[in-house]
Amino acid sequence: MNDVIRRPQCITCLRPASHCICGCIRPVDDAGTGRAPVLILQHPLEVTNVKNSARLLHLCLPGSTLVTGEAFEPAALAALLAGPRRAVLLYPDTPGDRSLGIAPPPTYEPADAEELLLVVLDATWRKSRKMLYLNPALQALPRLALQDVPPSRYLVRKAHAPGQLSTLEATAYALAQIEADEKKFAPLIDAFDCFVGRLQAAEAAHRHAG
């Protein structure tokens, strides 16, 4: 059997070294603040997707947690959601949920960032619905819906419906909404613009080489 030739990989962003995005990392300064921590649940198919923004989001948010899976072991998921903070899911409540047998979620009650854990699903819309369906503990969480967000800056990925955002954008706007502080989370959008710019440059170089 021939050995598989693997390209050198960056140990931080987990991308091929030639496409490293570490230069786009813009850490959000949470010193002396009570920013809501973020738990990112990433679908396995997104891990190697070069257009996926969750890893960059994780690297920009000190104290965030990134876990990969689809149907999580109940005890393990419960442990991730447990703690003094109240977990809230960044996900809209849609009529389609009822067709899947998913009951209406508990009412979301706004609270200070110090009281919340923001849970984010990183997946396509279809896969995120499946993650929700397969994990009753996620169904039981109150949901935070985004309000008055700008158009997506995700120029390298086509949205299938108005208002669809990347995982990084959605999380940045959710945190800004929770804290009523857009400026604080502007570094996340700067990081995303850098990320998208590098993807566009790589695509242009590939077309030119072809």
Automatic annotation (TrEMBL):
Protein name in UniProt: tRNA-uridine aminocarboxypropyltransferase
The enzyme's E.C. designation: 2.5.1.25
Family, per entry: Belongs to the TDD superfamily. DTWD2 family.
SMART domains (alphabetical): DTW
Domain DTW: 6-204
InterPro entries: DTW, DTWD2/TAPT
Top-level EC class as recorded in UniProt: transferase
Signal peptide location: none
Molecular functions (GO terms): tRNA-uridine aminocarboxypropyltransferase activity
Native species: Pseudoduganella lurida
Annotated keywords: S-adenosyl-L-methionine, Transferase, tRNA processing
Biological process annotations from GO: tRNA processing
